[in-house]
Amino acid sequence: xxxxxVIKFIPLALIWGSSFFFIELSLEWTTxxxxxxxxxxxxxxxxxxxxxxxxxRLPGKAKQWLHLLVAGFFMSAFPFTMYAFAQQYTTxxxxxxxxxxxxxxxxxxxxxxxxxxxxxPTAIIGLLVGLVGVGITLGIWRGFGESEPIxxxxxxxxxxxxxxxxxxxxxxxxxxxxxxxxxxxxxVLTSAVILLPVYLFTGPLFVAExxxxxxxxxxxxxxxxxxxxxxLFHQVVATAGSAVAATVTYTNPVIATVWGVLLLGExxxxxxxxxxxxxxxxxxxxxxxxxxxxxxxx
Length: 298
Prior knowledge:
Blueprint: H1 2-26, H2 32-53, H3 62-86, H4 92-99, H5 102-114, H6 121-138, H7 149-173, H8 180-201, H9 212-240, H10 242-246, H11 252-262, H12 271-286
Helix pairs in contact: 1-4, 1-9, 1-11, 2-3, 2-8, 2-9, 3-7, 3-8, 4-11, 5-7, 5-12, 6-12, 8-9
């Protein structure tokens, strides 16, 4: 059974860790909103094909679609736009590191907005450690270094959005007991619907002529990064449990850093990997985990 989820986890980690690289190339062809729209539209197409090929159907109740619409906004439409916007002004490496703060903002949302979890001392410590890590990653003693403050705000807003969306799904979507492939399909589809009017009426649809690399990156970002990846993720959850599946978040900065340095020629300051270690450590403990081995049950 272990080998079964490992062969799905590895491509999942590679896909999501590479998404920041795909975003960077996609921005050569279209706008930030365009990147977000096309990745959700192409992801929805891939997911719907998978859904119907498995003999499943999309939900038939308006209430189900409404909750998935809200989930789509917080988990896809808004954060995808923020990441694409931010990467116009900062590196894909920094975007990936700050993406790892998502568990900390999920903890804050759970405590404050949803109040569905008691305050866990380990999680609180993780939150504080992670916040220190964010400060080091940004090089706050240098005034954010070379990063534009607006980009930092956009990246943090994206993590906050994920932080709100995750407990929202747990509270309103999970109880519907729809197949995971179906919920993922509708989530991405409704995100594309949300983004379409914004994309059409906020500026040029494309900023340059497409190239093989920019068009290819956008297709891969949609089909793989917003489509196939969800399919793999839900399979890992089913076979290895949610605790194991969630660790894919920790691989994103590593993979994004490799691609950023090798393929995009991005610089790497000493304080970025140093801060990233604290961010990942904080995210680990923010999920209420402790440094002891025990069998995880889901």
